[in-house]
Write a structure and sequence with these properties.
By secondary structure, this protein is α/β, with parallel strands linked by helices. It contains 9 helices and 13 strands. It is globular and about 55 Å long.
Length: 254
Amino acid sequence: MKAVVIIPARYGATRFPGKVIAPLLGKPLIQHVYNACRRATLVDEVTVATDSEEVLRVVQSFGGKGVLTSAEHPSGTDRIAEVARGLECDVVVNVQGDEPLINGEMVDEVVRLLEDQRADMGTLVKKTSSLEEIFDPNVVKAVFDREGFALYFSRAPIPFYRGKIRPTGGFSFEPEDTIYAYKHIGIYSYRKGVLLRLTELPQSELEKAEKLEQLRALEAGFRIKVAETPYETVGVDVPEDLKKAESYLKKLWV
């Protein structure tokens, strides 16, 4: 099973343009992501897919492989599909270019999930008991069956634990006992054919409602295998997130 990693790296992020090449501990952010993926043992190739010549130059400056793609893609999934079409591979791993804490073990884990022939895609989750994260719409939650196949992803708290959490006014929630949820870590593995078919499908109704691309796959009947990871991640969405990522990385290096 030949696996490749493709890292979508769009320059024009709305909240933080150019974030993928922003400096983080002396290196561009994208280099941290690229180097982590290179440390995976189950992938044969790592490529950055970008719409920006500037990002491409930065990637090439640290010895990385990059491909210039169309600037018209509506999503990172479409961007990696453009590159995947020209590659001979069985599995494509999508690692976001703004996730500097992703590591090689996580990449290997999502590749390994597709050893289950019933699985079309693989992804990771991490258990959390933080009410702030559980009720944060920017933290996507996942529920899955006893065999590890995703049932649903949502920005809402799922499961809701009726009777165990009660509103105390506004957006404040008070736990009556310990609750937890599984937050979704945005790394995916796809069988190549599944990835290409997904990008040919129109947006689904649930996808439009939640603004989550993975719901298109579930609504189309694709099966997403989920594994729990012990690793924390920090996505860089705004400039302030660089400090948070820097703090986490320094702890890992101690």
